Amino acid sequence: MTSSLSVAASLCHNSRKHLAIQTLARNEPISHVAAREQVSRKFLYHQKQKAEAALDQAFYPASETSDVLFHLPVTEAWLNQLVLCLVLICHSSYRGVMRLLEDLFDTPISLGTVHNRLVAAAGHATWINAAQDLSPIRVGLHDEIFQGNQPVLAGVDAHSTYCYLLVEAEHRDGDTWGVHLLDAKAQGLNPDYTIADAATGLRAGQRAALGGIPCHGDVFHIQRQCETLANLLGRLAQGATSRRQRLEHRMAQAKLAGRGNTLSLALAKARQAEATALSLAKDVKALTGWLERDILVLAGPCLGDRRELFDFIVTELKQRERLDSARIRPVRIALERQRENLLGFARVLDDKLTEIAQRFQVPEYQVRAVCLLQRKPKTSQAYWQRRDHLNRQLAWKFHAVLEAVVNAMDETHRSSSLVENLNGRLRNYFFLRRELGQGYLDLLRFFLNHRTFARSERPERIGKSPTELMTGKGHPHWLELLGFERFRRSPVPA
Predict the structure, then answer these.
(1) How large is the average pLDDT for residues 285-294?
(2) Is 404 helix (H, G, I), strand (E, B) or coil?
(3) Which of 49, 57, 203, 445 could be cross-linked to 166 through a Cys-Cys bond (beta carbons 3.0 to 4.6 Å apart)?
(4) What is the mean pLDDT of residues 44-54?
(5) Are residues 489 and 387 part of one domain?
């Protein structure tokens, strides 16, 4: 007699399906079906469970999260794109890339493979960077940023934020800057002027590489230096006040004990020191405030008046130098030596305002008045009163002159703050591995130059990349520039 086990093992899938249907129908007891088909009841219960599971899956209401949105063909080229995007967009570490591919795609990848894929992309990015024409750049911003203790020489286009120089260097002297600026010059770099801080190596390198192109001073650094001085003197004045108050308290206690004369001399000196410190702090704060609001401000007087005011500030600081030479003297010397560089933007603005006056055939002082109007907040009554007065003077030319002046001011740069902004963006990447060396900086430079702005304070930049803003021409997606084919979903049929 054939055993039930051997019969069950020999049944085909159609027979098993038929038995499952019989058990689900419940037209007869399971024991009768088992005896007739020569199989065990355990086998029949097992087929019944499989059929019930299949029916549940077929008729159970599917949730929205279980719907397949689209199918993605995962190829080796697509995984290479994913590795790049994880590092450049998500700031992922090498080991983070390895873990994601293993956990989400069941695809183990080694540390060396991730590194090699970035090296390959960096090589292609370096070639693209070197082929870019830099002749559209009119104002270059130069600065030195640091990766740890390693200097990184940086150059950014003031208009488009395009980064045309990002080089890790052993030194930051004139020869090093000169060599790299010569490379940029070979790509067409020939700006009207540049902006940088007072770094001697940077300025010497520019003179050697770019000849007579002016290098204006960065007003941000000197303003911060002046603000630091004013704040420090203010804190010293507060300390002098505290010392005087403590001595007065001790004096009151000594008088009760009949020994008040023991602190008289110390208290007199403390009061004199407090008065001197308060006066010095007040004067320096006023002087540095005038420097920032009336001299180094964009909407200000002409270059000649700015020079006179600037010299007045320097003279006043020099007269107070004896009161705190260690702190005031470095700031005074910096201002004295950098005057022409710091006021370079004023010369540029004056030339633009003169050109506007000639173009519209209006007096230059009225154009200057339109410029000074921009200092007032547009929500103030004074702004609209002055605007109405200028409108009556210039008549039908007012709106055209106003637009020209505002555009001229927008295109006149005073600081290299965009390089500081670049430094902040690079900080998010410098924690990654450094084995790529200069190639890694070339890859970052390529990525930041060809990725579009998702948001910006300037509406004209949104949706465009720095390269597109600099050249005025569109370009493929940065992944396509590196030779990849981007995935695109098939259109959903109506």
Answers:
(1) 95
(2) helix
(3) 445
(4) 83
(5) no
